[in-house]
Design the sequence.
């Protein structure tokens, strides 16, 4: 299905975030995208935020995430804006928040003896039964607390 599946996935991601009240321009993992991992669905996908990007790893026959992270271009925040799924203003808020978090992380790492905090940490939502909640529109990152 090529491009059409990428568009469908991006549409679903944005609509799922919207229905949960999550920031559309973010790396938040909506509950729908956390379902395969939560159910340990063999052959499914474990969506999560990593390195400030939204991506997934494949689930093996036991339902455990394995392999490298895959970051579909269609799910990148810039691509969501380019495709018209989010506004330029939403993208700009996301960009500013990401830059501020990176600056705060740099300050923290220099003041805590070099312990670096990843801006897009893999606070993956499905690993502990969490429904994929996030900090919402105020922070724009996936931050399920477990």
Sequence:
């Amino acid at each position: 299905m090529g491009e059409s599946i990428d568009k469908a996935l991006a549409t679903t991601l944005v609509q799922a975030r919207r229905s949960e009240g999550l920031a559309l321009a973010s790396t938040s993992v909506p509950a729908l995208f956390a379902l395969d991992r939560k159910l340990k669905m063999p052959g499914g996908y474990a969506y999560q935020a990593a390195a400030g990007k939204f991506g997934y790893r494949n689930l093996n026959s036991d339902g455990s995430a394995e392999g490298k992270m895959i970051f579909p271009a269609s799910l990148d925040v810039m691509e969501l804006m380019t495709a018209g799924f989010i506004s330029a203003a939403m993208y700009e808020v996301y960009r500013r928040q990401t830059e501020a978090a990176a600056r705060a992380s740099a300050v923290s790492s220099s003041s805590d003896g070099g312990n670096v905090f990843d801006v897009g940490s893999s606070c993956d939502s499905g690993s502990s039964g969490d429904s994929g909640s996030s900090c919402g529109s105020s922070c724009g990152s996936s931050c399920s607390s477990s």
